[in-house]
Amino acid sequence: MGEMLSLLPEYAPGEFDSRHRLVIIAAQRAKQLVQGARMAGPSKFTKETSIALDEVLRHKVKFLIGKEARDAIKESKRVKEGETERLAMMTGEDAKEIKKELSVYVDDTVKPAAPEGEE
To answer: For a designed S-S bond to 69, which of 24, 29, 64, 105 qualifies (C-beta 3.0 to 4.6 A apart)?
Structure first.
């Protein structure tokens, strides 16, 4: 990785306000790769951290900073909360349909005990 950092000016002169920001962005991308995200293209590297750094430096990964990043986080939370609220409001026919579909997999109904002498 030291080899790559020494090449930083060759990759993206003046693009990052600090190496700290570059490391954070590459770390987030490496985490995505470890969790199964596809590579943005072929790479000469084999480790997720090196692939991530290479992708960031070659402009294969988009990222937001500052106010744009904060706005994107707020929007993401708003969408997630809206989806959660929509699911929580499901009642009536929707809930019955879901329960019906799930009953195929799990039958949690309590069966009444047969009265004595009626077997």
So the answer is: 64
- Quote the DSSP letter at residue 17: S
Q: What is the pLDDT of residues 68-77, one digit of tens each?
A: 889 988 888 8
How far is it, in rounded angstroms, from Cα 57 to Cα 26?
Answer: 9
81 domain-assigned: yes
Instruction: Output Rg (C-alpha) for the chain, integer angstroms.
Output: 26
Q: How confident is the model at residue 31 (pLDDT cuts 50, 70, 90)?
A: very high
Q: Domain total for the chain?
A: 2
**Contacts for 40 with CB less than 8 Å, ≥ 6 apart:** 55, 60, 61
Domain encompassing residue 70: 66-103
Residue 92 in any domain: the answer is yes
Q: Whole-angstrom Cα distance, residue 72 to residue 74? A: 5
Identity of the amino acid at 15: E
Same structural domain for residues 53 and 75? Answer: no
Dihedral (CA of 91, 96, 99, 101) sign: negative
